Amino acid sequence: REIGRVYAADTLGGLAGGALFTFALSPYLDHAALLCVPAALCCLVAAIVARDFGAPRLVIASLAGAMVFGTILVVGPGWLDDRTTQWQFREPVVLRAASPYGRLVVTRAAGQLTFHENGVPIVFTGNTGQVEESVLYAMAACASPRRVLLVSGAVAGAGREALRAGAGAVTALELDPRIIATGQSLLPENLSDPRLTLVAGDARRFIEQARGPFDVMIVALPDPATFQLNRYFTLEFMTAARRILAPGGVLAFGLGQYADYVSPELAHLLACAHRTAAAVFPHVRLVPGERVFFLASAAPLDADLASRLEARGIAGRLVNRHYLDVTLAPDRLAELERALAVPAGLNTDFSPALCRHRLRLWLSQFALPATGIVLLAAAGVLLYWLRLTAPAKAVFATGFAASALELVLLLGVQVLYGSLYRQLGIVVTVFMAGLAAGAALAARRVPVPASRRPIAALALVIAGLAALLPVMLAQLAGRASPAAAGEAVLWLYAFAAAVPVGALFAVAGGMPGREPGAHAAGLYAADLVGAALGALLAGALLVPLVGVAGTCLLIVALNLAAAALNWRLPAST
C-alpha cells in the first residue's frame, strides 16, 4: 500500500507542477525564471530531508542553493534569460518575449531579421526572392486576384508584395499577436498599408469558419516538420480552403528546397503533397523555384506565368521572364514529373504522412546508420521486456499507453482547436490528477489480491479506452461544437484514461513475494521505460507512419498481451 501512496504523491507533485506552470508562472516569468522556481523548491526539500537524516553540511549546502536560485528569481531573471538566449542563437538578439503561444526571439545578422518561435525560424527579412516567389506565382496563376488570404508571411512582406501585384485587399492571418506587434514595431513598412487587414488567431479555424470568397490563398509557412504546421497541408485543410475560394481561385504553398535535383526523400514529400492536393483540386501545378511551389485550383491554370505578370505590369526584382525561363526549363519540369510518379499516400489530420517524409528528408543530410541503431535499440528493449515479471510487463504496457495516448490527445487538441502551448500544461495537470486518483483509490480500497486478475482487468480497461480515442476524435472533428466544449471532452478523457494507469501501478505494487523496495524500484523503472518508448515511438514513428488509429491499435494490442500474461497467474508467482 505504501508503494501506491508514494506513486500517488509523485503524481500529485506532477499535477501541482503542471497547474503552477500553466496558470501562475508561464504568463509572467521568462524561461530562466521558470526553471529557478523548481530548482529553489528542490533545494528546500533537500534541506528538510538532510535535516531529518542528520546531515548538517548538506542542509547548509541545500539552503545556499535555494538562496542562489531565489536571488536569481527576484533580482536577475532577465539577465540570465538574455545570456542563455544569446548562447542559443549565436547572433545578436534584437528581441525576446513570451506569449500564450510560445517564445519569440528576433535576431539580426547581415542586416536581416529572423523571427524564431519556439526555436523554429518563421520569418526572414531581406529575402526578396522567397517573398516574390511565394506571392507572384499564385497571383499570376489567378485570372483576377483581387481578394487575397495570406496564412503567415505578412511580417516578412508577403502582404505588401500581394498588394503591389494587383490585390485590392489582403487579409493576413498570424497565430501569435505578439508577432504582429513586433512586426509593426520593427518592420512597419510591411504592415502599414490600410488595404492590409491583420487578424491574430488560428488560421485553420479562421478558414474553416470564414465565408469568403477569396481569389488567392497563400500559405507562407515552413515545411510541415511539426504536427502544428502539418495542419496546413492536409486533405481536410485543402477541402476547407476550396470551400472559401472563388470558382477560379488558387491555393498556393511551397515545400522543400530545389536545386536541379530531386532526392528520393524529397520525391516522396512532393508526391504525397501532390496527391493530397489533387484529391481536392482538379488542377495542380508545380513550379520549381527555390522551393517547390504548388498551385492548386478548380479551374485550369495558365502555364505562361511570365506573360500574365507582364500583362499586369508586374516586374519582380527576381521573378521576371528571364528567371521564369530558367526556372521552368523542360529538364527541371521533367525532374519534378519523375518525382510525382513515386507512390504516395494522402496526408490527413490524423495520419500526418508529410511529417514522416519531412523527417526522412532531414535525416538524409546525415550519414547515420539508422537501420543498425534501430535494430540495436529494438534488441535492447526486447531483452529488457523478457526480464520483467508479468506485473512489471503490465506496468510497462500502461506506461507506454499513458505517454502515447497523451501525445495522440495533444495532437487531437491541436488539430481540432488550434495551437498548443499552455494546453500542454493543462493536459499534464489533468493526466497527473487521474494518475494520483487511481493510485490513491487502489492503495486505500483494494486488498492484497490472491491473483493477478485485477492487473489483467485494469489492462483491459486501458485497452478499451485506447480503442475509444480515435472514434472520439473522429466524432469531434465531424461536429461544429464550441471549442470549450470539445476541449472539456478531451480533458475528461485524459483524466479517465489516467485513472486505471495509476490504479494498475498501485495494485502491482501490492503483489507479494519480493522485498518491497526492490519491487517498487523495478515497477517504477518499467513504468518510465514504457513511457519513454511510448513518447518517442508515437511522436517520431507511429503517428506519422500508421496514423492515430494505427497507433491506438498498437496500444490496444500491447495491453491485451499484458492482460493475457496476468490473467491466470497467482499473485505469488
Explain what this protein looks like in three dimensions.
Strands 7-6-5-8-9-11-10 form a seven-stranded mixed β-sheet, sandwiched between helices. 62% of the residues lie in helices and 12% in strands. The model has no long low-confidence stretch (mean pLDDT 87). Strand 5, helix 6 and strand 6 form a beta-alpha-beta unit. It is an alpha/beta fold and 573 residues long.
In short:
By secondary structure, this protein is α/β, with parallel strands linked by helices.
Q: How many E-type strands?
A: 11
Shape: globular
Q: What integer value in Å does the Rg equal?
A: 27 Å
Q: What's the mean pLDDT score?
A: 87
Percent in strands: 5-15%
N-C termini distance: 19 Å
Contiguous runs where pLDDT drops below 50 for at least 5 residues = none
Oligomer: single chain
Helical run tally: 21
Helix content: 55-70%
- Tell me the structural class: alpha/beta
Strand order of the largest sheet: 7-6-5-8-9-11-10
Features:
573 residues, alpha/beta, 7-stranded mixed sheet, 21 helices, globular
Question: Topology, pairings included?
Answer:
Layout lengths: L1 H24 L5 H22 L3 H20 L1 H13 L3 E7 L2 E8 L2 E6 L2 E5 L3 H14 L5 E5 L6 H7 L4 E6 L2 H10 L9 E5 L2 H7 L4 E6 L7 H4 L4 H10 E11 L8 H15 L4 E6 L3 E6 L7 H7 L9 H7 L2 H11 L12 H11 L6 H18 L2 H28 L4 H24 L7 H25 L5 H27 L6 H52 L6
Parallel strand pairs: 5-6, 5-8, 6-7, 8-9
Antiparallel strand pairs: 1-2, 2-3, 3-4, 9-11, 10-11
Helix pairs in contact: 1-18, 1-20, 2-3, 5-6, 5-12, 11-14, 11-15, 15-21, 17-19, 17-20, 17-21, 18-20, 19-20, 19-21
